[in-house]
Write a structure and sequence with these properties.
Layout: H1 41-49, H2 55-63, H3 65-72
Helix pairs in contact: 1-3
Length: about 90
């Protein structure tokens, strides 16, 4: 898995004085103990969209928002695609 981290202007530090990064462990939930880079993007975005209170994880998500969103994009076929339209 590739690294999600992007350079940010001012990292938000956790209580240990270090910002979460891709190697940091998820502190809670279904993926507790997994490296942040291995936590599914859709799970992190779901947490963010549903009022995540943990500042460290929220800062990680915000710092990596662009990559997380690109990881969750799927290409869906257009039901009006030329190949799917047939003349009666």
């Amino acid at each position: 898995m590739y690294l999600r981290a992007f350079a940010s202007n001012l990292p938000i530090l956790n209580i240990n004085g270090m910002a979460l990064n891709d190697k940091s462990l998820m502190p809670f939930g279904k993926y507790k103990g997994k490296a942040m880079a291995n936590v599914p993007a859709d799970y992190l975005l779901w947490l963010y969209d549903n009022g995540l209170k943990n500042g460290d994880v929220k800062a990680y998500i915000i710092d990596n928002m662009e990559v997380l969103q690109s990881e969750t994009k799927t290409i869906k076929p257009n039901k009006y695609d030329e190949q799917s339209i047939q003349d009666p």
